[in-house]
Amino acid sequence: MTLPLTASKKSGAGARLSHRLKYIQGDIGHVHDGGHQLHDSYRAMAIANGVSPDDPVLADCR
Predict the structure, then answer these.
(1) Which strand (E) or helix (H) includes residue 18?
(2) pLDDT digit of tens for each residue in the chain (62 aa)?
(3) Under the phi-then-psi rule, with left for phi > 0, alpha for psi from -120 to 50, and beta for the rest, what region is 21?
């Protein structure tokens, strides 16, 4: 049995397409950092938040 996609169940390309269409229509604005310094990667963010650089959880992170 397949369920229809709803606003809360969207995923993948459908969600991205919906976001792009809303952006084009002016319903949402540009995403910005709000003046906060952003990390170069998820790995850098995790390490900055206390995860050990050699923790196995980071093995698949770029």
Answers:
(1) helix 12-24
(2) 444 444 445 567 677 888 888 888 988 877 778 888 889 999 999 999 999 999 999 998 76
(3) alpha
Q: Distance (Å, rounded) from C-alpha 44 to C-alpha 62?
A: 9
pTM for this entry: 0.46
Say if CB 43 and CB 34 are below 8 A apart. Answer: no
CA distances from 38 to 5, 31, 59 (A): 33, 13, 21
Round to whole Å and give the CA distance between 48 and 41. Answer: 11
Give the DSSP H or E segment for 42: helix 42-48
